[in-house]
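Deliverable D5.2: sample structural annotation.
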Amino acid sequence: MTTPLIRTETLSKTYHIGGGDVRALVDLSIEIAKGEMVAIMGPSGSGKSTCMNLLGCLDTPSAGNYWLAGEDVSQLDSDALAHIRNEKVGFVFQQFNLLARATALDNVELPLTYGRVPRRLRHQKAEKALAAVGLADRMDHRPSQLSGGQMQRVAIARAIVNNPHVLMADEPTGALDSRTGAEIMALFQRLNAEGITVIVVTHDEHVAAHARRILRFRDGRLVADEAVAAPVRAAEAVAAAAGAVEAPGAASAPLGGPLVPEAV
């Protein structure tokens, strides 16, 4: 039997605020297999962000257990969690979180720098990641010189440069127009097709419809676990918007080669 990439048992998080307890996540027990694309949905205060923080090793649970790639990470200290995040988890956020004074190449190199990868190898891997997301000609540009969609592509390149086990995206299209958002979802779907597990946190039903599975939260609890029979194909939506509808199954792209950078 294949070990799931992500497994939780009664995972819970309680915050102590103003003399009272807030149960942000209650008894979450799920499994996510390698290669899945999952959307986490819910209104504000539903527990979806807390779930992402725990699954992404950004926070520790108050109770329960969490196994990532077979390793129980529930009780790891902050240094060990930082190592897990850098090696096994890639993050993409709504506001990009790029260093304003750094070039696209420098931003993508950051996880490699933290991992003490030699400089020459850092450059090679970061260049491949940027080329994979269609930004080979923007490597020396700073965020202020890039569009919103280009900044999010830089963020995706940074997230995949270490070949993580799982890519977690928190409202990744929230700051983008609809067409650029579709291009970003097409990137996520290509990454998923190449084997990366993708988890997207969103309040947008249309964004969630690109996934193959939707986890719905309310009041800190998982209330529904739904399979998506026919996910939206973002590449086709982008092509249609451009006035050139692709044949079913065609790849989108101003992108060259696989999105997941190969080892150098």
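Annotation notes: The chain has eight helices and eleven strands. Residues 191 and 259 are 6 Å apart (CA to CA).
The annotation will be released with the project's public dataset once the embargo ends.
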